[in-house]
Amino acid sequence: MSALLWLLQRASGLVLVLLVAIHLGVQQALFAVPLRRAALIAVDWMLLAAALYHGLNGLRTVAYDYLHRAGAQRAVNWALWLTGLALFTYGSWGLWILIQ
Amino acid sequence: MRVARGEGDGEGRYETHVVPQTYRSTVLDGLLHIQRHLDRTLAFRYACRAAMCGTCGVRVNGVERLACSTHLSAVPGGDVTVEPLRYLPVIRDLMVDFEPFFDAWRAVKPTFMPGAAACADGSPAGFATIGPDVRERQVIDRHRECISCGICYSACDVVGLAPSFPGPAAITRSFCLIMDSRDGGREARLEVLDREGGCWRCHTHGTCSELCPKGLDPTVAIEEVKRLLARRTLQKAFGGPR
Amino acid sequence: MHRLRPDRRVMAYAELWPTHPRWGIGAWWAQRITGVLLVVYLIWHVVTIAGAPRHPERFAALLRFLRHPVLFTALLAALAYHSANGVRLVLFDLGIDAMRGRTMFWACLVLTALLVAAGLWRGVLRGL
To answer: N or C: which end of chain B has fewer CB within 10 A?
Structure first.
């Protein structure tokens, strides 16, 4: 499990470098040609998932460095997963609104 | 030379002495001079005086070093502060209790466990034939000659943060045995290291490798363990080689 | 600054210079601090953008933040450093073993500076 989280942290980091570059580079074109707009919304959605995973997993690592009791670690784990899912849902809904 | 003094459970203090220095004087020479001529109560450890035994590990101006192989003339600034290694209970002055270090060592199963009958080159049981140019030999040789001086353990910030982290020396030792094709305890060792408090607490600061007096590279050894664990996890998840 | 990698010949003469190899730990602290700041910003960004239609004042606050020269530069610097150092770490993970050489870290700092410069130039061009 830890190994998978570690791998995904690296993978999501690399993916983020690319997606953030696109997001910062061309975000103003969001409201132009519909196909481009759909592609950019897809990019934004992937960015949302990758960024939330990478960021909250990073917080998990920091927390695990300072909290050593299994109970505290489990609590942080659950809290971060729930926060991540909640934010992903909210963000996806926001993107969905944008498509309408 | 400013030397840390005190019993382990009391308040520490620093005492300053002036010691003679020739072009070859080391920190250990300074400590011996203090003990022989200035203050016979100073407590410190040494043995071989040739950077082979790993007994005289101390912190010189905050940096972990072997006292016998640190020239006084090479310490920048002129004043030399000598303190005991970090994260190990101080017995007295510069002597520290290595039990926690060796507890961590024991926790990663550091002893050779004879494995199955086949040898690295597929020959039947008997004598294992592992030539000097075989990859596993080269990898292990890079990390093998640990003298358990405790310098990497003291230099590692994570050792101070996480009580369950075995430390660079222990993980490196475990890695050498994991890579040994004659050894049968690979899975057991990987299990121990694949815990949140195991190798995953390492954040690749690199200080352990920078300070190892034998030129070992625990940063890379721990990184290899992480890669092995990653491959192992993927294999378990998806089956088949990765 | 001497690299503290003793080879056997040097060990015989015991001529080692004590150094303070802090760049590894400094790099890690900076990665951690920028990471935490970026997560905080990320959550604010996601919540604000997603809730923009219903809370336009929050969206305006976010835009004010992004238009502030110092704050925007700080955010950009955090992002640039975290990315550059992250790439350095991934390269190390992939076996490009220059971790102990400070070269890779200096390259990472140079990259950070370039990214910040590029980002600021772009921001100025777009009238931020």
So the answer is: C
